[in-house]
Amino acid sequence: MRQIVKYSGILAMSVLLSAGLTGCGGGLFTADGPETEAEILQGQEGGTLWEAQAHLQYVEIARRDTPGLPNEHPTVIAAEELRAVLGSIYVNELFGITRRDVPLFSPGELQILGVALANGLSQAEENEDINYVLNGKHRGLIASETKTNTGRVFIGNDGRLNIIFGLIHEEFRTHEKSTGQPIDRRLHPMNPGKRGFDSKPGVRVAIDKGQAYYLDPKTGKERTDWIVIDIATVLANVKNRKSDGDGTVSPELLEDVARNKQETGNLRDDVSGMKEIIFEMSDEIERLKRQIEDMKVVTPTP
Fold first, then answer.
1. Distances (CA, A) of 301 to 80, 129, 292
2. Quick check: pTM over 0.90?
3. What residues contact 238, with CB distance under 8 A and at least 6 apart?
4. What would the pLDDT profile of 193-218 be if each residue is shown by its tens digit?
5. Cα-atom radius of gyration of the chain, to the nearest Å?
6. Longest dimension (CA), the chain
7. C-alpha to C-alpha distances, 111 to 73, 106, 136, 216, 243, nearest whole angstrom
């Protein structure tokens, strides 16, 4: 059934229009465009591998949070390989009443992380990790939504890639929903994960071949926020999937493409309807203006 977008009042319309309903010059429907490799590398300064002042996003080399076995750093991994590995990570999310596996990272996040992590892992020391805080455009129930991903990345002494998540697809907000007050990130920071405790993110990674949840030796239980990745196995799996079926497209992918096209068409219809309403309102506003001008004319008293 078609999803209907409901808007109320002139304020909602003006906000949407100012965000760029037609798609010109960016705005609400702008794609999650990745930066170029050169732009990402140019942003490096010391331990900061990439940074965006807006919304406190960054990728940086940091001291490991607890002592233990040394990391296998520095390690040389190609950015393309890291993008393939990270692009193979999916999470299980609820859309309405249906659960679906969707990519953990957006295209923009993959581009930034692929370049920045490859750069960072090649220079990090054995007592250092790489932390990231990123906002990306991700699929929502009706339209794309901005969501936050945070994590701690390192190569363990067994050569496997470790990611300890802080936030996974957390709804990005600058203001509190209940009060409308700005969120003070000093009190509510967007932290990467920590070795010392399970952050228990609200969304779980859908484990695939070459991926596993970290088994905490202290408790004997799996950590819900920590995955360990065998890079070679994942890369081989990605290669096999690309060559499987002689390049045929899976029915699931075709379904996603069709659904996305339908959602885009629905949004265009809704936007067109809003424009018609605004044009009608413009005529009404002009009529009210004329009435106000007429009221300003003072009728002389006899």
1. 84, 84, 20
2. no
3. 84, 85, 87, 88
4. 999 999 999 899 999 999 999 999 99
5. 24
6. 100
7. 22, 9, 11, 31, 23
